[in-house]
Amino acid sequence: MNENSSMHEHPVIELSGVKKLYHMGETRVFALRRVDLEVRPGELLAVMGASGSGKSTLMNIIGCLDTPTEGSYLLDGKRVDGLNRNALADIRNEKLGFVFQGFNLLPRTSALDNVELPLLYDRAGRWTNTRAMAVAALERVGLGERLDHQPSELSGGQQQRVAIARALVTQPRLLLADEPTGNLDSRTTVEVMQLFQELNDHGITIVLVTHEPEVAAYAKRIVEMRDGRLIRDHAVADRRRAADDIVSMDDAPDVELEVVA
Fold first, then answer.
1. φ, ψ for residue 36, nearest 5 deg
2. Helix (H), strand (E) counts: the chain
3. Fewer C-beta neighbours within 10 Å, C or N terminus of the chain?
4. Within 13 Å and on the Cβ side, how many CA atoms surround 64?
């Protein structure tokens, strides 16, 4: 997608004055305090903040898993903050793809069956050739030769790729990733971020939550949260490219361990 043309489209995400209030006994806790946020088509946005900053609550509202106490939320131009639970579930199935830190794959089920599952649960009956769509999604993330492998037969990085394929298979408008590299080593983290960058380069809008500045540096834009508020919103001036980092890792000399008697 051309970034200039995307500026003429309506935002994928448009939050205005969003608050989230929880009651804990007689205590009121504001998880979000008047959050205003726009995410345009083709962005790769990282949401950062310490534990308790409100980033998980923000992600739950963006993902239609929760609703704001006050304020409005337009997803792909449609107001969704007042919808009931069933309507929100339909929106999630139609518009959103989710990737989680823990992969959330069915353990005794093949990669292909894991990816096909969201298509089978689509109440709107939009999909017919679900098997072929699941194969195509796995091929897109580089796992075309691992279709029949169960999660226990895959590395952590491969499991996360299966999870990404499952999120992509319904052709969502928006991909949401919650700490997607939290269970991965440094090299696999870079490989997963390379995949996110490649998907984003092909027009997929991505919002990811991370507490790691090294991961956020692969995004195009970063918003930082503290005490339920957005305190900073900025473009990434010196954006890292994961493909370059992988080349640097490959060029690094092997380190020999000295054995001390």
1. -115, 125
2. 9, 10
3. C
4. 27
Residue 212, SS3 per DSSP? coil
pTM: 0.89
For 93, the token pair is: 């199935």
Q: Which helix (H) or strand (E) holds 90?
A: helix 85-95
CA 181 to centroid of chain Cα atoms: 10
Question: pLDDT tens-digit profile of 201-248?
Answer: 999 999 999 999 999 999 999 999 999 999 999 999 999 999 999 988
Of 135, 122, 117, the closest CA to residue 89 belongs to 122
Host H or E run for residue 113 = helix 111-120
Query: Would you say 174 and 114 are in contact if contact means Cβ atoms under 8 Å apart?
Result: no
32 and 61 in contact (C-beta within 8 Å)?
Answer: yes
Structural element, H or E, at residue 209: strand 205-209
Residue 196 near residue 33, CB atoms below 8 Å = no
Give pLDDT tens digits for 15-62: 999 999 998 888 888 999 999 999 999 999 999 999 899 999 999 999
CA-based angle 111:114:101, to the nearest 5? 90
Domains of the chain (ranges, CATH numbers): 7-248 (3.40.50.300)
